[in-house]
Design brief:
Blueprint lengths: L1 H33 L22 H8 L6 H10 L4 E6 L2 E6 L2 H9 L4 E3 L3 H7 L9 H16 L1 H22 L5 E2 H17 L5 H18 L10 H27 L8 H7 L10 H32 L1 H17 L9 H5 L2 H14 L4 E6 L3 E3 L2 E3 L4 E5 H5 L39 H18 E5 L6 E2 L5 E2 L4 E6 L8
Parallel strand pairs: 2-8
Antiparallel strand pairs: 1-2, 3-5, 4-12, 5-8, 6-7, 9-12, 10-11
Helix pairs in contact: 5-9, 5-10, 6-7, 7-8, 7-17, 8-12, 9-10, 10-12, 12-15, 12-17, 13-15
């Protein structure tokens, strides 16, 4: 009998020890991040900081690797109510997630209260002198100096012929290829376009090296920051080092050329030449980090949105026909002597602009941006401690049924009489740090869709293919498809 009680006691003790360990594990993050806040801890937003070190990343990754990525935020709403603000441990840092137009607008526009808060791993790859990491004053200066070379009316007009040339050539080639990965080739197209805008005179081998290294870098932006051989992030850091070396060589060559040549050819020349009111020019590191950031923004987002807009139009014939009619009307109004698109024509594509906006809303290419509280703050009656990260969760805003009826439905006509209220439409962010390449990105997308709608159609090989949501929403087969040319006589039929 005594031996039986001995075994039972062992079981009980082990059970108690197990419960104590579980309790301790669940409290570790509280001890590290909340206990030292004193009374403020009781005014934190609802939520939890999850497991030690891992935090809430396991549930985040599980949701975004499933067929229902929005289950991550939905679990917070079901457990803590629709407060629009929740605490979590994300990307290794205590964080507050804001999910409503009002809170997102506040976080994105109040530069006195918030500063950039991107993970260190992201900053190491994109660059600490890029737009996403520099101080507010440096950001204003850099934006002022680069605005004209990127989004200015003259610059955009100059870029149009080259974008057209590449789009027409690519579509013509794709129509002869049979089955191919539509997204993969769109990304190659947008990379080629953006690289020409930056570096028009560089050789094909240099461009190929840049694309190869950039692809490796981009894979690491959303990967776990494990800097050990064999891991994606380690390869990405090596790719950045190689990219910087290539770009530094180009910068050096261009500086030497500018001593004898005065005519600017591309954005690199413009960035080397521009100076502020005090005569201060951009440093080599600023130029390189700006170029890498534009590569990320102007190449990735444009390629994905081109694919999704094309697919979604193909799946909705009524919108497809309306978009085609608009493009045909542009051709009918064009003088016989005019060759190619003008910026004025692009800006007259009212329905196509709605198609692009609806695609940006539905897909939400960037699901969140990162900020950091500069001081202890109050949002919706909750305290956000100084130094905590604040994640403006765009996806929850764009897919909120109280803002957009039937939010998962592709409906460009919803924009006919809709003026988006502040904070409800955030594809490029908001405030002073609004994506600086937004006009260039929309120009690329508009030109591609113009020529596609006039002359081609797409047929997906696996229309029911499941999706991946990280780092961006895409079919798992990269949209395996066939592009077919359409006789011009049936356009808009």
């Amino acid at each position: 009998m005594s031996s039986w009680w001995g075994a039972g006691e062992v079981v009980v003790v082990l059970g108690v020890v197990g419960l104590v360990i579980i309790w301790i594990v669940k409290r570790v993050n509280w001890w590290i991040y909340e206990a030292g806040l004193g009374e403020m801890q009781y005014s934190l937003p609802p939520g939890n900081l999850g497991l030690p070190f891992i935090g809430n990343m396991w549930s985040f990754l599980s949701a975004f690797k499933s067929h229902d990525p929005d289950s991550f935020l939905r679990s917070y709403v079901s457990r803590y109510g629709k407060t629009g603000i929740y605490k979590a441990l994300m990307f290794g840092k205590p964080s507050v997630i804001v999910t409503t137009p009002e809170t997102c607008k506040l976080v994105l526009t109040d530069d006195d209260a918030f500063k950039p808060g991107w993970p260190d791993s992201t900053m190491e790859l994109i660059g600490r002198k890029s737009f996403i990491g520099i101080s507010q004053e440096e950001h204003k200066r850099l934006r002022r100096l680069t605005a004209a070379p990127v989004n200015g009316h003259e610059a955009l007009s100059v870029y149009i012929p080259y974008i057209e040339q590449n789009v027409v050539s690519a579509l013509d080639k794709w129509a002869t290829m049979g089955q191919f990965e539509f997204l993969t080739h769109l990304r190659k197209l947008t990379f080629r376009i953006i690289m020409y805008i930056f570096l028009s005179s560089e050789s094909a081998p240099v461009m190929e090296a840049l694309e190869r290294e950039y692809t490796s870098l981009n894979y690491g932006v959303r990967a776990m920051a494990i800097n050990l051989p064999g891991f994606v992030y380690h390869r990405a850091l090596k790719a950045r080092k190689n990219l910087v070396a290539i770009l530094q060589s180009i910068v050096d060559d261009r500086r030497n050329q500018m001593k004898v040549l005065t005519k600017k050819k591309d954005m690199m020349d413009a960035l080397l030449d521009v100076e502020d009111e005090n005569g201060r020019k951009l440093s080599d590191q600023e130029i390189i980090d700006v170029l890498l950031m534009y590569l990320n923004a102007g190449h990735e987002s444009s390629g994905h949105i081109m694919m999704w807009a094309t697919i979604l139009l193909q799946e909705h014939p009524e919108f497809l026909q309306k978009a085609k009619r608009e493009q045909n009307e542009i051709l009918k109004k064009r003088p016989a002597t005019q060759k190619g698109l003008t910026l004025k024509e692009v800006r007259e594509m009212e329905f196509l602009s709605k198609v692009i906006d609806e695609t940006l809303r539905l897909i939400t290419f960037s699901l969140t941006v990162f900020r950091e509280a500069k001081r202890d703050l109050s949002i919706n009656g909750f305290i956000v401690p100084k130094g905590w990260k604040v994640l403006a969760w765009f996806r929850s805003v764009h897919l909120d049924p109280e803002i957009y009826s039937n939010p998962y439905e592709f409906n460009p006509s919803r924009w006919d009489n809709l003026v988006a209220k502040a904070g409800t439409f955030l594809p490029f962010g908001a405030g002073s740090r609004l994506c600086p390449g937004n006009d260039l990105a929309k120009l690329e997308i508009s030109i591609f869709l113009h020529y596609f709608l006039l002359n081609y159609e797409v047929e997906r090989v696996n229309p029911g293919c499941s999706l991946m949501y990280l780092p961006h929403s895409r079919p798992k087969d990269n949209c395996l498809a066939v592009i077919k040319s359409r006789p011009s006589s049936v356009l808009g039929a």
